[in-house]
Amino acid sequence: MRHKILKMSLAVVLMGSTIMAGAVEVYTWRDKKGVNEYSDAPVQLTPAKTQRFNVRTQVATPLAAPQPSAQAGSDTLTEQQAQLNRKIEEQNKKTDEQNKKIEAQNKKNRESACKTAQMNRKMADSLRTNNRDALIQRYDEDVRLNCN
């Protein structure tokens, strides 16, 4: 008796909270003992085993047949999620490879900028202009930024 009261109160709370939260779907099914169960997710994440329950009208309707996915044999959400995870892992690997290439190119660019800054600094030592000290200071800063 307590178990039934607990389940009924849980169902009422679930229905009430979904109305307030603006939830669209509540799923219902019968367990092995024949007791109605309510949830915001299909039973065992397989929509074929559940019904959609409209909280406002108190009507349970069967879910539409699952649409065939791009790959045959994927009838459960868990399998679809596993396929999606594999695709994401492949994309992450490609992105990591691209990032490594970019890092290598950036390293080459920094080495080139360092060599240029060092040559400019050496050239500034032999200058005979009024702004020689300003140029030396500027090239020292360039060497500090590009060579460390």
Question: Which SSEs are present, and which pair or pack?
Answer:
Blueprint: H1 2-21, E1 26-30, E2 36-39, E3 51-54, E4 59-62, H2 77-125, H3 132-147
Could you describe the 3D structure shown?
By secondary structure, this protein is an alpha+beta fold. The chain has two domains: 2-62, no CATH class; 77-147, no CATH class. It contains three helices and four strands. A four-stranded antiparallel β-sheet has the order 2-1-3-4, with helices on one face. Helix 2 runs antiparallel to helix 3 (132-147). The model has no long low-confidence stretch (mean pLDDT 78).
Q: Any descriptors?
A:
148 residues, alpha+beta, four-stranded antiparallel beta sheet, 11% strand
Brief sketch in words of this structure:
By secondary structure, this protein is an alpha+beta fold.
So what's the overall shape? Answer: rod-shaped
Strand order of the largest sheet: 2-1-3-4
Q: Supply the number of helical segments.
A: 3
Helicity, as a percent range? 55-70%
> Please, how many domains?
2
User: Could you tell me the radius of gyration in angstroms?
Assistant: 33 Å
Q: What's the β-strand tally?
A: 4
Keywords: Signal
Pfam family, one: DUF4124
Protein name: DUF4124 domain-containing protein
Organism: Snodgrassella alvi
